[in-house]
Design brief:
The protein has 13 helices and twelve strands. By secondary structure, it is an alpha/beta fold.
C-alpha cells in the first residue's frame, strides 16, 4: 500500500510561490501579509488540504506549554535569524520558548543532554539548531519522550530541515573554478574551540568534490581551520597570508568568516578581488553592503519550517507519519569580491 504524502508548509510555499515565513504568517493571520499573498496561501492550502496548527490545539500536544530551542551559540547571525523565525511560530501556536545556548562549550552540552529527564520536566519539545550530537546523544534524545525537530542535521530520527551543505560548497567552489582560479584555499568551520560547526565536514566535502571535478586535489596547507565568526576568519586569513602560500581565491564556509578574511587582507594591504577572490555561504545582510559573493540560504525559512513540523508533532502526537527530511534551495549570488583570474 502506497503511503500518503505528508503535506507540509513547504508544499504550500511551493504552490503559492511564496517563502515559508510568509506562508507561516499568512496561515496564522498575522500582520504584514498583503491581501494578495493571503489569498494565494489560502488557495494553495485549500488545494493541498493543509491546515496550520493553532494555539487552541496546544493542550493536546503536551503538559508544560514550552519548547526549548537549543543552539551552539546565541550570538551568530544564522542562529539569531533561525531562532526569531521559530519563536514566532511557537508563540502563535501557544507555546512559550526556552532558549538554551551551548556557548560553544562541550561541558554545557554534556550538562543538558546528560539530564534529559530534567529537560522533559521543563519542556514538551526541542528544536535543535545545528547541534553536533554523538550517536549515543541522538539515541537518548530520541528515546526521551520529547518531541524533536532540527535545523541543519542529517541522519537523525526526527523531522529535519536544512540545505544541502555539500552542494552549497560545491556551488561556491565551482564558481571560483569557473573564473579560472586553480589555486584555492578554504577557511573551514572546524572550530578551534571545543565544538565544531556541524555543517563543516559536508562543506569541506563539497569543496573537495568541486576540485575533483576539475581533476584537482585539496592541498592540506590550504585548508585552514576557522571559527565561524568574523574574528575566526580574520585569524585564519592572517595565518594563510603570513605562513602559507597566498592562493588566488578563498572559499570561506560562512559569510562571517569571509568578512574576517576581508579584514585581514585589508590589514596586509590586499583587497578582493584585486589580489584574492573571496566567496562565502549564507547571504548575511552585510554581504550585500560589502559586495561579498556568496551562496544564499533561506535561514529564516529553515527555522520557521522546522518549528511548524515540531508543533504539528506535538499537536498530533498519535499521527503515524515517519520523520521527514527537507532540503531548501540555495542560490549563487555573484557580487564584487570574485572575478576572473588574470
Amino acid at each position: 500500500m502506497v503511503k500518503a504524502h505528508r503535506v507540509t508548509i513547504q508544499d504550500v510555499a511551493v504552490l503559492s510561490g511564496l517563502s515559508i515565513c510568509t506562508v507561516s504568517r499568512a496561515l496564522r493571520n498575522l500582520p504584514n501579509v498583503s491581501e494578495k499573498a493571503q489569498a494565494k496561501v489560502a488557495d494553495a492550502a485549500a488545494k493541498l488540504g493543509y491546515k496550520a496548527s493553532s494555539a487552541a490545539a496546544r493542550l493536546a500536544g503536551g503538559s508544560t506549554g514550552s519548547i526549548a530551542i537549543i543552539a551552539p551559540t546565541a550570538t551568530a547571525w544564522f542562529f539569531a535569524q533561525a531562532v526569531e523565525a521559530a519563536e514566532e511560530v511557537f508563540g502563535d501556536s501557544g507555546f512559550d520558548t526556552v532558549l538554551i545556548s551551548l556557548r560553544g562549550k562541550s561541558s554545557v552540552k554534556l550538562k543538558i543532554f546528560g539530564d534529559l529527564l530534567g529537560l522533559s520536566q521543563r519542556v514538551d519539545g526541542v528544536l535543535l539548531l545545528n547541534v553536533d550530537l554523538s550517536e549515543s546523544e541522538v539515541a537518548l534524545l530520541a528515546a526521551s519522550g520529547l518531541a524533536v525537530a532540527s535545523v541543519g542535521m542529517t541522519s537523525v530520527p526526527w523531522d529535519n530541515v536544512g540545505i544541502d551543505d555539500e552542494l552549497a560548497a560545491w556551488q561556491a567552489t565551482s564558481h571560483l573554478l569557473g573564473l579560472g582560479h586553480w589555486d584555492l584555499a578554504v577557511l573551514s568551520g572546524r572550530e578551534t574551540r571545543e565544538n565544531s560547526v556541524l555543517t563543516a565536514s559536508d562543506r569541506l566535502k563539497g569543496f573537495g568534490r568541486a576540485l575533483k571535478d576539475h581533476h584537482l586535489t585539496v592541498h592540506p596547507d590550504l585548508v585552514i581551520n576557522s571559527d565561524s565568526t568574523i574574528d575566526g576568519g580574520r585569524k585564519a586569513m592572517n595565518e594563510l597570508i603570513a605562513h602559507r602560500s597566498l592562493p588566488t581565491a578563498v572559499f570561506a564556509d560562512c559569510d562571517e568568516a569571509a568578512f574576517g578574511a576581508l579584514m585581514a587582507m585589508r590589514e596586509h594591504g590586499l583587497s578582493a578581488p584585486k589580489n584574492v577572490s573571496v566567496i562565502g555561504i549564507d547571504d548575511h545582510p552585510m554581504s550585500w553592503f560589502l559586495g561579498l559573493s556568496t551562496v544564499a540560504q533561506p535561514v529564516a525559512d529553515q527555522g520557521a519550517f522546522a518549528a511548524n513540523l515540531l508543533v504539528e508533532r506535538l499537536q498530533n502526537a498519535d499521527a503515524p507519519n515517519e520523520p521527514s527530511h527537507h532540503f531548501l534551495d540555495t542560490k549563487l549570488i555573484e557580487r564584487k569580491t570574485t572575478r576572473r583570474q588574470r
